[in-house]
Amino acid sequence: MKLQKLFEETVFPIGAENTAFAQYFDGKSYLDMLSLEQVVIGNVTFEPKCRNHWHIHHAEKGGGQILLVTAGEGWYQEWGKAPRALKKGDIVNIPPNVKHWHGAKKDSAFQHLAIEVPAEGGSTEWCEAVSDDEYNLLP
Ligand code: MN
After folding, report:
1. How far is the CA of 83 from the centre of ligand 1 (A)?
2. CB-hemisphere CA count at 13 Å for 5?
């Protein structure tokens, strides 16, 4: 899916360029915080090839993240596991304390809602980037 088509069809607002987390992303993304009360929900839109760095949603109790894919095609990968291809309608339950990344496919824009599961002692640790060598091996 082209970014322009995603922009035309998106259900939730795309928001502005994601400058707040740009240092943890390769490529251009957009972020709109849909909810900052009760449960924090962000709408994250990735240009083709854009992905975030390996990261961990730490928590002592509860925590983790749920991704609801709303447009396009992308990837989710946990450390040491095979990447999982994602398309509109897919749901990813990311456990707390598991290193992972998410992002777009090479040839498709991608959008997911990211739901922060409420946590005690929650924090996000950002790690190394997904290298071009690693990313380019993906179909
Ligand atoms: Mn995550």
Report:
1. 14
2. 10
Question: Which residues have CB atoms below 5 A from the ion given as ligand 1?
Answer: 65
Residue 100 CA, ligand 1 centroid: distance in Å: 6
Beta-carbon-side half-sphere exposure of residue 138 (alpha carbons within 13 Å) = 24
CA 36 from centre of chain: 17
Half-sphere exposure of residue 96, counting CA atoms within 13 Å on the CB side? 15
Please tell me the distance from the alpha carbon of residue 89 to that of residue 139, in angstroms, as a whole number.
20
Instruction: Return the DSSP state at 63.
Output: -
Let me know how long the chain is: 139
Q: Are 69 and 57 in contact (CB under 8 A)?
A: no
pTM reported for the whole predicted model: 0.96
- Residue identified by tokens 């739901």 is 115
* Residue-wise pLDDT tens digits, 43-82: 999 999 999 999 999 999 999 999 999 999 999 999 999 9
Measured in Å, residue 65 CA sits from the centre of ligand 1 at 6
| Distance from residue 55's CA to the centre of ligand 1 (Å) | 6
Read off the amino acid at residue 68: L
The alpha carbon of 1 and the centre of ligand 1 are apart by a number of angstroms equal to: 22
